[in-house]
């Protein structure tokens, strides 16, 4: 799972970093990413269909998309994957489905299991029950006590950010 997050974020950054904020995708960046990296994930890749897709994913209508949208689109679809980024998304989706046993939400105990099992290498607090509880609370936007797929992808984005900060941090010390 950690490798999948790393791969996903790496590709995301390549496209998001082309113009404006490097944390979000503009319309042009999103078009490029979809056509080059996600041809199997998005069934219709002509320009107007991608515009439509972007509109439907752009929750706050600021014309920018963040990492979370990528997972959102994928749930409950099982196409054959050929691209690295799609593979990475698939791994993350499958991890969620396995942990939730096919349900739409992770309850507290499955969330705890997922974090301690899958993210132990990245998060220092992955074995602390209270830290995981705090984390779950922070992710639970609709306060229903469970972690939805969307909320799970917020966590992925957070983990990816942490990993890239660590990487750039260690690069600076090295040079
Ligand atoms: Ca950008
Ligand atoms: Ca929730």
TrEMBL record:
PROSITE patterns: EF_HAND_1 (PS00018), EF_HAND_2 (PS50222). GO terms for molecular function: calcium ion binding; calcium-dependent protein binding; transition metal ion binding. Keywords: Calcium, Metal-binding. This is EF-hand domain-containing protein. Residues 127-162 form the EF-hand domain. It comes from Knipowitschia caucasica. The keyword Endoplasmic reticulum does not apply. One of its GO terms (cellular component) is extracellular space.
């Amino acid at each position: 799972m950690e490798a999948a997050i790393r791969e996903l974020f790496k590709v995301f950054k390549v496209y998001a970093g082309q113009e404006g904020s490097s944390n979000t995708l503009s319309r042009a960046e999103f078009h490029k990413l979809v056509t080059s990296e996600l041809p199997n994930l998005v069934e219709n890749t002509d320009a107007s269909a991608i515009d439509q897709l972007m509109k439907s994913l752009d929750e706050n209508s600021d014309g920018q998309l963040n990492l979370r949208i990528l997972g959102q689109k994928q749930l409950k679809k099982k196409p054959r994957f050929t691209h690295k980024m799609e593979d990475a998304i698939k791994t993350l989706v499958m991890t969620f489905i396995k942990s939730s046993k096919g349900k739409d939400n992770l309850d507290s105990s499955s969330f705890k299991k997922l974090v301690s099992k899958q993210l132990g290498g990245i998060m220092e607090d992955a074995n602390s029950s209270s830290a995981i509880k705090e984390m779950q609370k922070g992710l639970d936007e609709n306060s229903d006590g469970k972690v939805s797929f969307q909320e799970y992808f917020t966590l992925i984005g957070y983990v990816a950010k942490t990993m890239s900060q660590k990487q750039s941090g260690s690069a600076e010390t090295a040079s």
